[in-house]
Write a structure and sequence with these properties.
Elements: E1 19-28, H1 41-69, E2 75-84, E3 91-100
Antiparallel strand pairs: 1-3, 2-3
């Protein structure tokens, strides 16, 4: 899913673009859990980062499975956005998308 630098022109041949693929992952924000009242700030931040990491990983994995099911083997222009919805819903939203090729 990641590459250190863009591929050199001519190094990759794109045979077919299959279209946009997207994945949405919504998880409970641990910052708003009742246990947060008794946790230290550091522990609370570590829990939230762990939640971010796990949700983002699951979104990437699901997106990759969708790409494979379409018959593609790459995602071009991959983007990932994280929304902290805060007090309104106490949720974290991970949006991942790209073009299947």
């Amino acid at each position: 899913f990641s590459i250190a630098s863009p591929p050199q022109p001519g190094a990759i041949l794109i045979e077919q673009l299959l279209g946009l693929v997207e994945e949405l992952r919504v998880v409970q924000d641990p910052e708003y859990h009742w246990k947060d009242l008794i946790r230290s700030d550091r522990t609370s931040n570590e829990e939230r980062l762990k939640c971010f990491h796990t949700a983002a990983m699951q979104a990437r994995r699901r997106l990759g499975k969708k790409v494979l099911s379409m018959g593609a083997n790459a995602v071009l222009g991959y983007r990932e956005y994280v929304d902290l919805e805060g007090d309104a819903t106490d949720r974290i939203c991970i949006r991942a998308f790209g073009t299947a090729a």
